[in-house]
Amino acid sequence: NAGVTQTPKFRVLKTGQSMTLLCAQDMNHEYMYWYRQDPGMGLRLIHYSVGEGTTAKGEVPDGYNVSRLKKQNFLLGLESAAPSQTSVYFCASSPAWPALNSPLHFGNGTRLTVT
Amino acid sequence: AQSVTQPDIHITVSEGASLELRCNYSYGATPYLFWYVQSPGQGLQLLLKYFSGDTLVQGIKGFEAEFKRSQSSFNLRKPSVHWSDAAEYFCAVGPPQAGTALIFGKGTTLSVSS
Fold first, then answer.
1. Which of the listed ranges A107-111, B51-55, B99-103 does the model predict with the highest average pLDDT?
2. Is B18 exposed, middle or buried (0-12, 13-18, 19+ CB in 10 A)?
3. What is the pLDDT of residues B51-77, one digit of tens each?
4. Among candidates B4, B97, B87, B101, which has minimal Cα distance to A35?
5. Model pLDDT, residue B96
6. What is the pLDDT of residues A15-26, one digit of tens each?
7. In sequence order, which residues have a C-beta less than 8 Å from that of residue A39 and are 6 or more positions away?
8. Which of A14, A80, B18, B96 has the most neighbouring CB atoms within 10 Å?
9. Cβ(B73)–Cβ(B24) below 8 Å
10. Count of CB contacts below 8 A, A vs B?
């Protein structure tokens, strides 16, 4: 059982380039999330999805787009990367609304550097 | 506005000593509360959670946390710290309504000295 898998693990981009981060979960979870983690800032929610075909903005959505075409996948896109998007990106999933008995399951992260 | 504050950015504890990590929250209603741990290079793992009932909750790895409504706090404790406990710890609050996500604190880094 793989849980939450993030691809790629590392990436270096030049300013202005685009890329897509892939998150895949094999637990049939309804909710999926993208967070970014920066030193001294903790985890900040970028976008999330409460089910297939749905997405919603989190705390820091600017510069990112997401899609949830399939229940098991949640894609995070950067259309024109900026140095401020250098961060570690975490995907997470949960079976339901996280305040219930439904803990978040995290992937191991993607370390992105934008030069 | 909802918020989570972890006042201590970095704490160093001697191996075998007790540990308390602080977490304060600001919320309009009784929140759902969580502690997560992140080992270097890894994702976050749930340590424990509180929804209602007994205000002292037990988690994995010998951790416990106490909910104090009057102080809006949910502090994490461990009686005897092991070197393997060195990690970053995050407190999080869950809103009472569906369709939303957890709010995380900025984290406390725990170092364990021998």
1. A107-111
2. exposed
3. 888 899 999 999 999 999 999 999 999
4. B101
5. 59
6. 999 999 999 999
7. none
8. B96
9. yes
10. 64
pLDDT tens, residue by residue, B5-45: 999 999 999 999 999 999 999 887 778 899 999 998 888 99
Residues 6+ apart with CB under 8 A from B63: B35, B47, B48, B76, B77, B78
Distance from CA of A107 to the nearest CA of B (A): 5
Phi (first) and psi of residue B79, to 5 degrees: -70, -35
Report the residue from B41, B98, B104 with minimal CB separation from A43.
B104
For chain B, the farthest-separated pair of C-alpha atoms sits apart, in whole angstroms, at: 45
Test mutation, A60, A97, A101, chain B, max B CBs within 10 A:
A97
pLDDT in tens, A86-105: 999 999 999 887 766 678 89
Q: Which residue, among B65, B47, B88, B83, has the nearest Cα to A40 in the 3D structure?
A: B88
Task: Give the DSSP letter of residue B30.
Answer: P
Q: Is A74 on the interface with B (CB under 8 A)?
A: no
A101: chain B residues, CB-CB within 8 Å: 51
Quick one: tokens of B57? 């909750």
- Contact: B44, A92; criterion CB under 8 Å: yes
